[in-house]
Amino acid sequence: MTTGFPGFDERLNELLARQAEKSGLSTEEFIRRAVVDRLVRELSDDQDSDVGALLRALQAASEKGVDPVEVTRAFGTPIDDPERLAAVTRTGLMDTGSDAGYDRIVAMVADALDAPSAAFSLLDDRRQYFKSALGLPSELGGAQEVPLDASICRYAIDLGQPLVVEDARLNDALKDHPSVQSNLFVSYLGVPLVDDDGHSVGTLCVWDRQPRQWTTGHVQILQDLAWIIRERVFE
Fold first, then answer.
1. What is the pTM of this model?
2. What secondary structure does DSSP assign to 116-134, as a single string?
3. Inter-residue contact 117 to 150 (CB < 8 Å)
4. Distance CA 127, CA 69 (A)
5. Selection from 112, 114, 110, 140 nearest residue 127 by Cα
6. Is 175 exposed, middle or buried (0-12, 13-18, 19+ CB in 10 A)?
7. Handedness of CA 97, 177, 227, 231 (dihedral sign)
8. What is the pLDDT of residues 121-146, one digit of tens each?
9. Measuring CA to CA, how many Å separate 108 from each of 24, 101, 134, 148, 206?
10. DSSP letter string over 7-34?
11. Element spanning 163, H or E
12. What is the number of H-type helices and E-type strands within the chain?
């Protein structure tokens, strides 16, 4: 009997396995992508969803050739919110240099997700500051920050939830982003770090210059390690 998706009969599972094989994916990954695609479409059509509204705005910007950073600013996303910016200041971590404890956690993240690059960052309305990072691009010349328009983590802040990008070159909202165009990253996985009042002050993320298929397990690992950082930041 064919093993496959629960609730599907043998014929449907055979078709599912065949289509997954044609796509070069495991059956599990094929199903996951189909669900994500459906979710994005439904959120984009949901007039009451903040995430859907942002997705629609980014899609429209891509079609018009508008910088997605300007779209999210105009959209009134949390990145410019005064209360969020005050929360970033209260952490007292901007421009404070490296910290061995955070460095160990970031190294654990890179190792657990088998990623060449990982970082714990804080973001204000002008820049992304790398409090701790592993595998920063040599193009940064040793700098510990990037301007906001070069940041991908700002989108995780905007959305307030994990941002999963398997291949940014195929993502309509990100393919023209400066960091993608300059090949600083192709795949990305990041989760926002949220204080007790719901303000996202930064992110814990990993990225690669190659496409990656991030799984729900990867997201869970990153969220678990982000919780350790959150406890240190907001203790």
1. 0.67
2. SEEEEEEE-SSEEEEEEEE
3. no
4. 12
5. 140
6. middle
7. positive
8. 999 999 999 999 999 988 887 889 99
9. 30, 11, 10, 26, 11
10. T--HHHHHHHHHHHHHTT--HHHHHHHH
11. strand 163-165
12. 9, 6
